[in-house]
Amino acid sequence: MTVVVPLAPPIMDVPISDSTERMENISLADAQILNLTMISDNLEDQTGRTESGEEVSIILSSDVLFETNSSELNSEAEEILEQVALEIDDSSATTVKIDGHADNTGSDATNVPLSEERAESVKEALADLLTRSGVDFEVAGHGSSDPIADNSTEEGRERNRRVSVTFEK
Q1: What is this structure's pTM?
Q2: pLDDT value at 122 more than 80
Q3: Which residues of 44-75 are buried (b: 16+ CB within 10 A; e: fewer)?
Q4: Are the beta carbons of 166 and 97 closer than 8 angstroms?
Q5: Who's near 95: CB < 8 A, 6+ residues apart?
Q6: Flavoprotein as a keyword (predicted)?
Q7: Are 100 and 70 in contact (CB under 8 A)?
Q8: pLDDT above 70 (res 30)
């Protein structure tokens, strides 16, 4: 059998058998079907996205959107946020979650408010860019409490400084 899925090469020659033999292994968990999640990164503008059957989460690098220790959007941010707004406009979402994150440099006393202010800045920009009404926003700042990369490297810290925008498709 050949298995074909979107965005991947075909998986050739998958064996299928009518055998009644079973492999028993007590340590295996019960089988479960998981939703496929697509993950992609754009190194040019340092954005990323995860996409499941129902939801899209767009990860925006704080280093691209803001100057160091600032929550004021820079000139590069507008073009990126216009693209995000278009996706939200095309979706069925009525709620958009915006989460600000930081690396582990500095203290939570600085990082939590800064990550929340950055998330709020992205919310305000998206609210102005959306062309349809009926979209509510949930904004939160998490400081360094939810890293997606290793904070012991500069590259990891850069990935952890981010704002994520999550909404239903």
Answers
A1: 0.76
A2: yes
A3: eebbbbeeeeebbbbbbbbbbbbeeeebebee
A4: yes
A5: 135, 136, 137, 138, 167, 168
A6: no
A7: no
A8: yes
